[in-house]
Every structure is written in structure tokens, then in C-alpha cells.
TrEMBL record:
It comes from Rhizobium favelukesii. InterPro entries: AhpC/TSA, Thioredoxin-like_sf, Thioredoxin_domain. This is Peroxiredoxin-1. Its EC number is 1.11.1.15. CDD domains: PRX_like2. Gene3D superfamilies: Glutaredoxin.
């Protein structure tokens, strides 16, 4: 299948690309075009389940899925995790209303223009390269942490707190996609992006964060069926 690839992160007003992926929470395939012409959809593109920030971002998105559905807006979570590993994880960590798809090759991330950061010794060219000094100077501040922490320290703390056990599948995803930036895109019924929240924006100010629920619901209200 020819792969779509955007040279820049897609923005409101852009037409969303179609991607066809293995469904996690049901059998068969799922695609963006399943919703086009039918219903608006909130699409979340995340790093794999190996990422503790993404596990929390996915849970946050799932927590809004029911309220969004009442407005006629569907939700689709896409994770950079192989299908068997993802199904096993969600079997033991079910999330209500979650509709999810597996994208171990990050086809959807590239199609929506979300870069995979390259880690360098000294050069930062956001959002394509970041130096190790810049990375270690960042601080992650979230309720599950005892204090603001550097990203890698936060990862270690959260993984320990979650009791997350890494598999070979997880390690393969980390090897090629550790720097993958993530985001959420709200598409109208025609598949046009009307709102987005990404780690790319504002020089990474939203790294590891989640959009405010009221912001998501407000955006959904403007395009609700």
C-alpha cells in the first residue's frame, strides 16, 4: 500500500489522510475513511504502550469518549505497539469506550506529519532534532509525580509505579520510535481537521501533557453532528 507522508504537522483546515490499521479492541481492520462522510472523530496518535506518558494520555482520551459519543463524535486511539502485545495489554488494562488500532510502523504518525525526534549531542532544531542537554533540562510536571522531574527520571518513576514489564516488542518499538512526537486531531464528518493538540506546537510546550477536557469538548461542540 502506498504510504502517505506529510512533510509538516497537519493543522486545522488540512484534510486528514486515510490509514488502514489492525483494530485492537475488535477484530479486523479500522481506517480513517470508516468515519469520513459518517461522523466526526477524534484521532489520537501515541507512542507505544511502553511509554508511561502515553498510557496516561490514552486513558485521558478514553475517559472523554463516552461524552464525545453523546455529541455524535467518535474516538480512535492509535498506538505504536504490535497488535498481539496491544491486545494483551488492554485485556488486563481495559478502558471503557476505547476503540484502538495498532501501528507498529508509525504509518499514521508520518501521514499526519508528526516527527520522530533525533537525539543529538549538541544540536536542537525543533521539532526534528533535540540535544541531550535540552532534553535533560526539561521538566515534567504531572499529578502522578512527586515533583517536577527530568523526562527520563519521570519515565523510570512512572514505569516502576505502574509495574510495567517490558517485552521484546516494547524494546523494538523503543529502538526506532523513542523520539516520536504525538498528538490528537479532531476531524469533522468530511475528514477535515478542525482542532489539534500536539507535542510539536509551541516548541514542545505540550510535551507529555494532555489537552484540557473542556478544550476538547468545546472543539467537539462546534462540529458535533
Amino acid at each position: 500500500m502506498p504510504e502517505n507522508q506529510s512533510e509538516r504537522p497537519l493543522q486545522p483546515g488540512d484534510r486528514a489522510p486515510n490509514v488502514i490499521l489492525d483494530a485492537i479492541t475488535r477484530q479486523g481492520k479500522i481506517s480513517i475513511d470508516d468515519f469520513r462522510g459518517q461522523k466526526p472523530v477524534l484521532v489520537g496518535l501515541f507512542r507505544g504502550l511502553h511509554c508511561p506518558f502515553c498510557r496516561r494520555q490514552i486513558a485521558s482520551m478514553a475517559s472523554l469518549a463516552g461524552d464525545l459519543q453523546q455529541k455524535g463524535v467518535e474516538s480512535l486511539t492509535i498506538v505504536n505497539t504490535p497488535i498481539d502485545r496491544a491486545r494483551l495489554y488492554f485485556r488486563y488494562h481495559p478502558l471503557p469506550n476505547l476503540v484502538a488500532a495498532s501501528d507498529p510502523d508509525r504509518i499514521s504518525h508520518r501521514a499526519f506529519g508528526l516527527p520522530n525526534l533525533e537525539f543529538t549531542q549538541s544540536e536542537t532544531v525543533w521539532p526534528y532534532k533535540v540535544s541531550l542537554d535540552t532534553l535533560t533540562s526539561m521538566r515534567v510536571d504531572m499529578p502522578d509525580l512527586p515533583q517536577p522531574m527530568a523526562p527520563m527520571a519521570a519515565v523510570e518513576f512512572l514505569d516502576n509505579a505502574d509495574g510495567y514489564e517490558f517485552t521484546d516488542d516494547d524494546k523494538r518499538m523503543i529502538a526506532t520510535g523513542e523520539g516520536q512526537l504525538v498528538g490528537e486531531f479532531l476531524l469533522d464528518r468530511d475528514g477535515v481537521i478542525r482542532w489539534c493538540f500536539t507535542e510539536v506546537a509551541d516548541d514542545g510546550r505540550h510535551m507529555f501533557g494532555v489537552p484540557a477536557p473542556e478544550e476538547v469538548m468545546s472543539a467537539a461542540s462546534h462540529i458535533a453532528a
